[in-house]
Amino acid sequence: MSSPTRHRVIALYKQLSYLGREYPAGADYFHKKLKSAFLKNKDLTDPAEIQKRIDLGDYICKEIEAMYHINKYRAMKKRYYEDTQAENIQKKIESTNWADGGQAKH
C-alpha cells in the first residue's frame, strides 16, 4: 500500500472511530465491528480494490453523519412541539410532493 493510501486509510479509521462514539448500539459495539472490518481487509494489495473500500468507508461516514443529524432533528422537534403539532407537521411533510416543486398532494 502506498504512503498516501496508507495515510488515507488511517484517517478513515480515525474518522469512523470518532463518529462511532455516539452510535446508538454503543461505542464498544461499533468499535468491534470497525476493527474487524479493517482487519478483514488488511491484506488487500490491488489499488483499485483499496480505493473501492475507501470510497465505501466515506459513504458509511456520510450515512452515520446523516443518521446523527436526523436524531438531532427529532430530539429538537420533540422539545419544541407538542405531540399533536409534531404529528401534523410530519403529515404535511409526508404529503408534500417534492417533484412538483413542493405543492401538496390533492
UniProtKB/TrEMBL annotation:
It comes from the Eukaryota. It comes from Lobosporangium transversale. It holds the Pfam family Complex1_LYR. The lineage of its organism: Eukaryota, Fungi, Fungi incertae sedis, Mucoromycota, Mortierellomycotina. One of its GO terms (cellular component) is mitochondrion. This is LYR motif-containing protein 5. Residues 8-57 form the Complex 1 LYR protein domain. InterPro entries: Complex1_LYR_dom, Complex1_LYR_ETFRF1_LYRM5, ETFRF1. GO terms for biological process: negative regulation of oxidative phosphorylation; respiratory electron transport chain. Belongs to the complex I LYR family.
